[in-house]
Amino acid sequence: MDEFTRRGVLRAVGAAGAVGTVAVAGCLDASADGSPKGDDGIDKDDDYDEIAWRYDTGGSVETVRDGILYGQEDFVDGTGGVLALDAATGEPEWRFGRTGGYSSYTAPVVDEFVYTGYGDDAIGSGSGSVYALDDDGTERWTGETGSVYHRPRLADGLLVVGSDDGAVRGFDRDSGDERWTVSVEGEDAGEPAPTSPTVETVADGVAYVTDDETLYAFDLANGDERWRYDAENRLSSLTVTDTVYFTTRDCVGAISVDGTERWTIELDSVKRLRAVVRGTVFVVRGDDLFAIDAADGTERWSDEPDAGADTDRTIRIAAGAETDGDERIYIASDADSDSDPATLRALALDGDERWSTALGDVKESTKPEAKTETEPRSISTADGSVYVVTADAIHRYAFGGENHSAVPIADIWSHAVGELAYVGTRDAVYGLRF
Question: Which residues form the Pyrrolo-quinoline quinone repeat domain (predicted)?
């Protein structure tokens, strides 16, 4: 296990000759003019006004806190561990951990300290760890677990984590002392077998844990099981408010926080539960959006292509409040048909359309030779804007659908928004000013 502090990183950078060129090997292709060009489509010497900085090792971005951007380096050309960059300049602050073979770290959880889980191989061998790091990247404490492949959760002074030895553990967030551990047993051909429970969320003193078809509610204070629920199909998403809402591949359901089933409805090909806003549950089924009454499970409205339309659209959903204070549901979709353009639409909670705009061509604000794929990959809202990631760019729209701008970066893995917008690709991490 290697830890890389800011001083060590800058020594490596100095040897490479430029800030931000740490551990880059074999990830860039030659462009037509001979300059290095990555799979993200950006030449290293491209001078886009929107690009504030570039960190030349690929990875994912997770969150910004106190001026630091946290994420993970790509394990092929980087360490595969936790990465901390100055959010304003892109300079590396520190890195922690190095993967090898099939080992991996989880996305970091950032609070007063930084927490991450580690799994020693992709198929799982029941041996792993969780780490707490100080704000300079030094190791504060380590807890022994099975292999950890899902982000730990933090609440009520505890770090709660599930691992592939079939256990869920609660660690003191400050000291790392193990407060409690509980076992969750799966079945293999009728025999008990180790499983890999996932801590989906923690709320109001309860850790909600899924294991295939079963949802568990564990008391954060002592790990006692409060209740369990059998969904009869693999659980695919979970949201907790004053009620627990869930989806499987063929249904949507609601459970009271005491474990009592309130309602379930059949809905084939459910992908995920996307939001619960003011008494309405929004779920995506196939490429359609359904709005379901949170109280009784009845369908309020749906957003689907016209009957008989020749379409195979892709949609992405986000929720947010506009300047008038009203909540909106934002839908980014590629073309409904050969003649209809890709769009970004804002719907009121009753399904009425408030505004719509064509999902912009990156040619409008960048170089003419850029690709123009408009299939949406992800969507989010922040600071009065809607951000849409497509196959070849990240787009920003002010609420109302106006003031479109875009940067043509292909194959974006993840994005986050702070003082700048941040994107991670296989080749690099970028800070963008729109």
Answer: 80-230, 252-361
Structural domain contains residue 207? no
> SS in 3 state form for the chain?
CCEECHHHHHHHHHHHCCCCCCCCCCCEEECCCCCEEECCCCECCCCCCCEEEEECCCEEEEEEECCEEEEEECCCCCCEEEEEEECCCCCEEEEEEECCCCCEECCCEECCCEEEEEECCCCCCCCEEEEEECCCCCEEEEEEECCCCCCCEEECCEEEEECCCCEEEEEECCCCCEEEEEECCEEECCEEECCCCEEEEEECCEEEEEECCEEEEEECCCCCEEEEEECCCCCCEEEECCEEEEECCCEEEEEECCCCEEEEEECCCEEEEEEEECCEEEEEECCEEEEEECCCCCEEEEECCCCCCCCCCCEEEEEEECCCCCEEEEEEECCCCCCCCCEEEEECCCCCEEEEEECCCHHHCCCCCCCCCCCEEEEEEECCEEEEEECCCEEEEECCCEEEEEECCCCCCEEEECCCEEEECCCCEEEECC
Give the structural domain span for 10.
Answer: 1-68+311-434
pLDDT digits (tens, 9 = 90+) for 172-214: 999 999 999 999 975 543 444 568 899 999 999 999 999 999 9
For residue 196, tell me if it sits in a domain.
Answer: no
Q: How many domains does the chain have?
A: 1
Residue 434, in any domain of the structure: yes
Residue at 410 is within a domain: yes
Q: What is the pTM of this model?
A: 0.84
pLDDT in tens, 89-137: 999 999 999 776 678 899 999 999 999 999 876 555 568 999 999 999 9
